[in-house]
Amino acid sequence: MPTTEELQQKREAAKEVIDVLQEISLLLNTKLNRTQLSLSVSLIENGVNPEALAVVIKELRKAGEKARNESAESDLAD
């Protein structure tokens, strides 16, 4: 069983990795926040195809935008 110190080192290493990935994400203008980026990395580490994940993220963004637009239009109609 890992010691408390080993667990702390792993947490710090994971935080550093996410920090670097977040910087890259900002440079690439992915519009992923830290939580979304962490979840994406976790999914990829667990075997999810990165390209398929990117497609799903894009589709979810489109659906969210469409829902916001429809909601805004219905608010204007009321």
The helix count comes to: 3
> What is the overall pLDDT average?
92
As residue ranges, the low-confidence spans are none
| Major β-sheet profile | none
Beta strands, count: 0
Radius of gyration over alpha carbons? 18 Å
Distance between the termini: 61 Å
Q: Spell out the helices and strands N to C.
A: HHH
What oligomeric assembly is this protein in? single chain
Helix content: over 70%
The geometry reads as elongated
Strand content: under 5%
Which structural class do you get from the secondary structure elements?
mainly alpha
Kindly describe this structure.
It is a single chain. The chain is mainly α and 78 residues long. The chain has three helices and no strands. It has helices spanning 4-27, 34-45, 50-77. The protein is elongated. It starts with a helix and ends with a helix. The mean pLDDT is 92.
Sum this structure up briefly:
With 78 residues, the protein is an all-alpha fold. It has three helices and no strands. The protein has helices spanning 4-27, 34-45, 50-77.
Give descriptors for this structure.
78 residues, mainly alpha, 3 helices, elongated
Give a topology summary.
Blueprint: H1 4-27, H2 34-45, H3 50-77
